[in-house]
Amino acid sequence: MFPWQCNNKKWFPDWIYYDIPITEIRKLINAIDKEQTVFNYPPFISEELRKLVVLSDDDNNKLEKKIDQLTKQNVELKQQIECIINYIGVEQDNKEEKDNEEVQDNEKVQDNEEEKDNEEVQDNKEEQDNKLEMQKEQTKEELPKQNIGL
Question: Does the global pTM surpass 0.70?
């Protein structure tokens, strides 16, 4: 290689940047501190990186506090919704009672109409029965007359 190629910072930068999730960095730092990893040479972990990882723990604490606040608000909202549902339920019960009363009134009206229809049908049957009885009597009277005429 030529010297001007070795000094090219695009080819050989002083710093190499990696994109690693914080959780993996924490695990790696904890493993290095507890000597659970094996390296040919000890890795250099800057104090700034340690501070950033620790600061993110503070952010997690803030997030946990936010989560707690939101869960409390959620519980309060659920209680309010239950109160509203109970209130609406009372109104619905009143509506259902009114509807039930209307249905019962309609059933009574229908029952009365059915009774009237049944009475009319019975009256018609009685009339037909009376007519049939009269026809029987007429035939009984006519039969002896016909027998005499033979």
Answer: no
